[in-house]
Design brief:
2 copies of one chain form a homodimer. Chain A is mostly helical and 207 residues long. Chain A is built from 10 helices and no strands. The structure holds a DNA duplex (30 and 30 nucleotides). Chains A, B: Residues 43-62 bind DNA.
DNA sequence: GCTGCGGGTGAGCGAGCGCTTAGAGTGCCC
DNA sequence: GGGCACTCTAAGCGCTCGCTCACCCGCAGC
């Protein structure tokens, strides 16, 4: 819903909407710390230290440590929905749209692995209310991918016996990239995106 | 209770090798607690309580909380290697062996989701030495699957442009089952195993 | 120059953590 | 029956956690 401030490289700074500056620095520090050590193993002192502030400064901008995780998770999931929705709504065949959805979603998980890790693996650390809100966003993610696959089946482009199961598998494959992707490894996010788009097209039996 | 280990259902009690009885009860309690809340969010008091013992009893059988995780992780990884090695060494075409490897590996992740979660997602909570040991087992897991895929390519059964990348994707798909399974209660481990075996055969271009 | 105010700090609170210690209960060999 | 080894507990140590509080600083309005 916000104006596009997107750069070409793109995914390094999706936190532009967070103000004021100190609140953003704390949030970025929290993302790094949560991704490295996990939510429960991260201390508020560590977060504040990474942001160059005292532990008490955190509580001027956020009520609790959990609110930080909630904010990160919501912004991240909104970005994920945005990526898939954009791909789903472009012009082209279902095959082209699915390839674009998978490759851009994978690029996001690989390139922004720090953020993606927190978004995908720290859901259980949220309280019930926050978790329910995030789960609603996840259902939107699922619906976008399922929509493309259904389009492909209707158009006769895909051969998919089990649409919900295949949707689950496609998303699972993309999400797990955040777990194993290594910045120092031999593959770039672009290469993984391309490989995965090809594998997914095979999974749906696209010609 | 005696040493009657493996039941027909099989995956509920792979902890028969852990003795004495109290040590096994503590370990099973730790698996449940780690899977539910994560390693860092689990307290030694919680583990001991689930096993019906006092907090101090834990330290008679294990030196530290981390040793519990280490033991769980090693036994779980050994089981994973065992499952894949068994599938890889059966008689049959590469297609049959890959299908068997994927379906049994997925069945283990889905049915023993509690254990699999700890094994797959708490690796970073281990210290450097323990992590190094576990990573060696993971390389064996990778090698088993890659071996089957290479066999299939050589035999002309598979069409795989990128063997290491496809191996990674196949394992990633199976492992991520531990994250999402039972959130959607409508599938049995057997059904997911069958679905995934089919999807993987499509990924490798099997006939 | 004084005041009000939003963003910041140093010190520290109560709680809960991983882990230890002193000692009790139980079975076994002599 | 006495000594010993093993298992387990009640109590609690030292520490670090998330979070709070009393106070400070730079700056805009008057």
């Amino acid at each position: 819903m916000s104006a596009a401030e997107e750069t070409a490289g793109g995914e390094a700074a999706p936190w532009g909407e967070v103000t004021p500056d100190a609140a953003r620095r704390l949030l970025v520090a929290a993302v790094e710390a949560f991704a490295e050590r996990g939510y429960h193993a991260t201390t508020t002192r560590d977060i504040a230290g990474r942001a160059g502030m005292s532990p008490a400064a955190l509580y001027i901008h956020y009520k609790t440590k959990e609110e930080l995780l909630h904010r990160i998770s919501r912004i991240g999931h909104e970005k994920a929905v945005d990526i898939l929705r954009t791909a789903a709504q472009t012009e082209g065949t279902a095959t082209e749209r699915l390839a674009e959805a998978v490759s851009s979603f994978v690029r996001w998980h690989a390139g922004g692995r720090t953020t993606a890790r927190v978004v995908q693996y720290e859901l259980d650390s949220l309280g019930p209310d926050a978790r329910a809100e995030i789960l609603a966003l996840r259902r939107q993610v699922d619906a976008e991918v399922r929509g493309i696959i259904e389009d492909g089946v209707e158009a006769g482009e895909f051969d998919v016996p089990d649409v919900p199961g295949t949707t689950l598998a496609v998303l699972s494959l993309c999400i797990d990239v955040a777990r194993w992707f290594n910045v120092n490894g031999s593959r770039t996010p672009d290469e993984v995106g391309e490989l995965y788009a090809d594998l997914v097209l095979r999974m749906v039996g696209a010609g």
